[in-house]
Amino acid sequence: MDSALQKRLAESFRCAFAGLAHAARTQPNLRIHVALAVLVVGLAVLLRVPAAQTAVLFLAIAGVIGAELMNTAVEALVDLVNDGPHPQAGIVKDVAAASVLVMVVAAVLCGLWILGPPLAGGVAGLLR
Prior knowledge:
This protein is an all-alpha fold. The chain has a single domain, classed as Orthogonal Bundle (Helix Hairpins). Helix content is 90%, strand content 0%. The chain has four helices and no strands. It has helices at residues 3-26, 28-46, 51-81, 87-127. Helix 2 runs antiparallel to helix 3. The protein is flat.
C-alpha cells in the first residue's frame, strides 16, 4: 500500500474513532445501548449460544449502535442548519429517532428469540 493511501486510511479511522468518542461522551442512549450489548454478549457466552446465533446477536447490536450514531449525526446536522424550532426540523429528527426504535425492536426480538429458550431452560432447571 502506498504512503498516501495509508495516510488517508489512517485519517479515515481517526475521524471515525473521534466521531464514536464524541457520541459516547454526549449521547446517553448510546451508552445504554453499549451496556445492554455487553449484557447480551455476556449472556450469549454464559449460555453457550451457537456461533451462528451469536453472529445474529452481533449484527443486531451493530444495527442498533449504527442507527444511534446516524441519529446523532442527523440531529447535529439539523441543529447546524436550523436557527431555531422548525416543524420540518422536528420531523427529520423524529424520523431519525424512529429508525433507532425500529432497530431496537428488531434487536430485542432477535435477543428474545435466541436467548429466550436457553434462559427459560436455565430458570426451569433452577426451580426443580
